[in-house]
Design a protein that fits this description.
heterodimer, A: alpha+beta, Aldehyde Oxidoreductase, domain 4, 3 domains, five-stranded mixed β-sheet, 25% helix, globular, B: alpha+beta, DNA polymerase, domain 1, 2 domains, 5 helices, 37% helix, 15% strand, molybdenum (chain A), iron ion binding (chain A), AldOxase/xan_DH_Mopterin-bd_sf (chain A)
Chain lengths: 770, 167
């Protein structure tokens, strides 16, 4: 097999399909590099402080930028005077709607709009010799606003008399409606119906490196060191915003201090920085401060979900109905959609399903995908409702899920590529946790213990074309691997090196991986949807297989055997089944030096007859202190169908990270808005509570590690997002197990827990303030 | 107008620097902007997250809450000054081996906090380790591996000391 390219016309358009040109690895393929817990290639840089993030770029003459943001949730700008700021020594550029052309950005608005729609919306920007001077200059800009009525509360924004963000109203577009069968009619046949309203909060990504970039013009060419999950998206949007060709813009991202979904689109800072740099004639660094990072760089949207689930007395579902409101904030910024409806339609077998979903505009910072967008929100509801059904019907919470198992994707009407994937997760996680064992003593003083279970699916993680890679075999036998993907902290660099090493039969230390540069790397898609490894991994295999084929042609001539009879093990080429005749890769390449062998790989299509999904299940044990309302997670077990595990250590790290963020989402994280003022009250890391070292219990990852050989030629799927999805409902279910209280509203703060305990007469506190 | 600059002499990673800084200028900005030691990270800039942790006279401090003028006549150590010339510090080595980071942005601060702990305590308990980094936020959620790295770092440090004694 060799790389091929199919071209045809589909619906009057060219359709291009490429293939990797190499057979897939299946479960029985012996592996040496893949499956090993290799340490990260960038380890030394990251532990010595030499890893250069976008925030760390330092160029000669570089200026530091700051952005003036709207103090009002909704207003018209009637006057801007920047003259005093411009006169301040050390200030090199000031831009605003008063002196900058209107560049379209986010729907029908502009980079500097004369209407501001949330507290934090961009009004003006300054570039100066230091952060301190830039901050001083912001204080000298005079702006007059005409206040407009605002609305920052999800349910209030839907009311007909609500202040409107757009002439068309606060519902963005048409409601998204899905029907399979007739949920309303089928509900009548249920023995038990759960009818409830759940809500989830706005959560902030709070990546430790803020959004931002450092930019430098050289003539008419622009280089952008961006903190981004997609160098090619930044290139496209910056070029189009500035009206210059894409090849004049080079976007670089070597290391990034976290993104979690929020850095998958180009934000206004990505265009403001080049505008400032152009005006100042100097390089400019524009990184958001922590306050802005909390206001203006995306959030997980708040939701309200009214649901009805109907089941027969044996636990089988007869109908699922959901009415969903998603609080989008002021602008729709694009990127991965928050599909809250999806898992209602897919996770459990049910013939009669109705979902409808409305995206609601309001005067808060814009929402953007946040690790498993939509699924975290819907799992909070679905998995609590399943738990509730199990309890009403006196069934084990795992058993009720087994009774509603779907081996097919009911939306696509196709079998899953690994139909038993979720069942493997049920088996592995319950065994690992000891779900069947008797629970430990549940009561100790004011403490109550409980155990909870939750499962999930995830719509992405399959990867997809197009994605490309180049491999260059050097005369000394080492490989340069070049692709335009990016390592967003997950370990992509290392995983790709393992794939390349495996394909060529060399050590991981003989592979250098070059990522995150649009000037050198061929196109690779945004790192979102847990799809990076599954998208680019097959292209990398293809590129290295191309090199391998060329290498074996050379070796075959030298060794006077047919190329098909040769194999490579530990960098040594030999005839299959013999040991007497062999050469190292370097020995072959030496003869032709300084010639290189160049390989090209293109990601092939996904199979069309199956649906590729990832699945997972978690068990948690919690302790509720009925005196303080504090919930402590004591331990977590988790299992995931993520296909082949390329690097178990790095996968475990992703699992830890997802569960840690799930604990934060469940218990402490919430953007708090004063709806009267329209202001966020906790836009910092003091009052927006992310988990600390002391909040994370032991986490056990029960590896499923069944290659999904149907999915792609590596057998690997994505892992980044899944572990976060079931954590919060598993915790909520464990709380119910401990104290018999169903918590409908996330997060389960101490205050909320104490209030609920008091309402249920269960508070051990001497006096609970209400 | 910007306030008057003040002379500061500070030793950073063993080298003396004579600086003129505004009184409001933080040690963090001095390191990152003036000395271009960007290994120390700016995240919250208000003492919430620990990413800017450095040592002043051997004590772990938040450099965003320390003014540069306060360090006049003092010794500062940053992540760039931790590794011995011929390799890595035991904490650094343990972080790599235990995969105690993902994006790596909090890592310099975590390492400086643990370095300060191990400078005074060769045999820390889990509680000691967790307390030492409880002021260092990690958004990627590497905490469990940071705990493992803390244990390993202590082991490596003791082993190095013993082999030095043996020599």
């Amino acid at each position: 097999m060799s790389a091929t390219m199919d071209v045809k016309i589909e619906d009057g358009k060219l359709a291009l399909t490429e293939h990797e040109g190499v057979d897939g690895w299946d479960a029985s393929t012996p592996m040496t590099a893949v499956g090993q817990p290799a340490t990260r290639l960038e380890g030394i840089e990251k532990v010595t402080g030499s890893a250069r993030y976008s925030y760390d770029v330092r160029l000669p003459g570089q200026l530091y930028a700051a952005v003036l943001r709207s103090p009002h949730p909704h207003a018209r700008i009637t006057r801007i005077d920047t003259s005093r700021a411009e006169a301040l020594p050390g200030v090199h550029a000031v831009i605003s709607s008063a002196n900058t052309p209107q560049i379209p950005w986010f729907e029908d608005s502009f980079v500097f709009d004369t209407t501001v729609r949330y507290v934090g919306d961009e009004v003006a920007a300054v570039a100066a010799v230091s952060d301190d001077v830039a901050a001083d200059a912001l204080g000298l800009i005079e702006v007059e606003y005409e206040r407009l009525p605002h609305v920052t509360e999800l349910e209030a924004a839907i009311r007909p008399d609500a202040p409107k963000l757009r002439d068309s109203g606060n519902i963005a577009g048409e409601p998204t409606v899905y029907d399979r069968g007739d949920a309303v009619a089928a509900m009548a046949g249920a023995d038990v119906v759960i009818d409830a309203v759940f809500t989830t909060q706005a959560a902030i990504h709070n990546s430790l490196e803020p959004h931002g970039c450092t930019v430098a013009w050289e003539g008419d060419e622009l280089t952008v060191w961006a903190s981004t999950q997609s160098v090619f998206t930044i290139r496209e949007d910056v070029a189009s915003g500035l009206g210059i060709p894409e090849h004049k813009v080079r976007v670089i991202k070597h290391h990034m201090g976290g993104g979690f979904g929020a850095k998958q689109v180009a934000w206004k800072n990505d265009i403001i920085a080049p505008l400032l740099a152009k005006r100042a004639g100097r390089p400019v660094q524009l990184m958001l401060d922590r306050h802005a990072e909390n206001l203006a760089s995306g959030n997980r949207p708040p939701t309200r979900q009214h649901v009805r689930f109907g089941a027969r007395s044996d636990g089988t579902l007869v109908a699922i109905w959901a009415d969903i409101h998603i609080g989008n904030g002021a602008y729709q910024v694009g990127g991965e959609a928050s599909n809250v409806s999806g898992m209602y339609q897919s996770l459990y077998r049910c013939d009669d399903v109705h979902t409808e979903s409305r995206t609601v505009l309001m005067n808060t910072g814009p929402a953007v995908a946040f690790r498993a967008p939509g699924h975290v929100e819907s799992a909070w509801v679905i998995e609590q409702v399943m738990d509730e059904l199990a309890r009403r019907l006196d069934l084990d919470p795992v058993e009720i899920r087994r009774r509603n198992y779907s081996p097919i994707d009911q939306v696509e009407d196709k079998p899953y590529s690994l139909p038993d994937g979720l069942a493997y997760c049920y088996d592995r996680v319950t065994a690992d946790f000891g779900w069947a064992n008797p629970a430990p003593p549940a009561v100790a003083g004011s403490k109550r213990r409980g155990r909870g279970f939750a499962a999930h699916d995830w719509a992405a993680g399959s990867g997809h074309p197009p994605a490309y890679a180049f491999a260059k075999l050097n005369p000394d036998g080492g490989i340069d691997l070049v692709t335009g993907t990016q390592d967003i902290g997950t370990g992509t660099r290392t995983g790709l090196a393992q794939l390349a090493a495996e394909e060529l039969g060399i050590g991981v230390d003989q592979v250098r991986v070059q990522l995150g540069d649009t000037a050198s790397g061929p196109y690779s898609p945004v790192s979102s949807g847990s799809s990076t490894m599954a998208s680019i991994g097959p292209a990398v295999r293809g590129a290295v297989a191309d090199v391998r084929q060329q290498l074996l042609r050379l070796a075959a001539v030298k060794m006077e055997v047919a190329a098909e009879r040769l194999t490579i093990v530990d960098g040594r080429i030999s005839v299959i089944g013999t040991t007497d005749q062999s050469m190292t890769i370097a020995e072959v390449m030496e003869d032709v030096a300084p010639a290189n062998l160049l390989g090209r790989g293109a990601r092939g299509p996904n199979p069309s007859d199956v649906s590729i999904r990832t699945f997972g299940a978690q068990c948690v044990e919690v302790e509720v202190d009925t005196e303080t309302g504090e919930v402590t997670v004591l331990r977590v077990s988790t299992a995931h169908d993520i296909g082949r595990i390329i690097n178990p250590a790095l996968v475990d790290s992703q699992i830890h990270g997802g569960i840690t963020q799930g604990i934060g989402f469940a218990l402490t994280e919430e953007r708090v808005v004063d709806h009267r003022l329209g202001m966020v009250m906790n836009a910092n890391l003091e009052e927006y509570k992310i988990p600390t070292m002391l909040d994370v219990p032991p986490i056990s990852h029960a590896h499923v590690d069944v290659p999904d050989s149907v999915a792609n030629i590596t057998g690997a799927k994505g892992v980044g997002e899944p572990p976060l999805i079931p954590t919060a409902p598993a915790i909520a279910n464990a709380i119910f197990d401990a104290v018999g209280i169903r918590v409908h509203d996330a997060p389960i703060s101490r205050q909320r827990m104490l209030t609920l305990l008091a309402e249920h007469g269960q508070s051990a506190a001497p006096e609970v303030a209400r | 107008m910007a306030p008057q600059r003040m002379p500061v002499t500070v030793t950073v990673n063993g080298s003396d620097h004579h600086l003129l800084v505004e009184p409001r200028h933080t040690l963090l900005d001095t390191l990152r902007e003036d000395l271009r030691l960007t290994g120390t990270k700016k995240v919250c800039d208000m003492g919430n997250c620990g990413a800017c942790t450095v040592h002043v006279d051997g004590l772990a401090v938040y450099s965003c809450l320390t003014l540069a003028v306060e360090t006049d006549g003092h010794e500062v150590r940053t992540i760039e000054g931790v590794a011995p010339p011929d390799g890595l510090d035991p904490v650094q080595e343990a972080f790599i081996r235990m995969d105690a980071f993902q994006c790596g942005f909090c890592t310099p601060g975590q390492i400086m906090s643990l370095r300060a702990l191990l400078d005074g305590n060769d045999d820390p308990t889990d509680d000691d380790i967790q307390t030492a980094v409880s002021g260092n936020l990690c958004r990627c959620g590497a905490y469990r591996n940071i705990l493992r790295a803390g244990r390993l770092a202590a082991d490596l440090q003791r082993a190095r000391r013993e082999s030095e004694v043996a020599r």
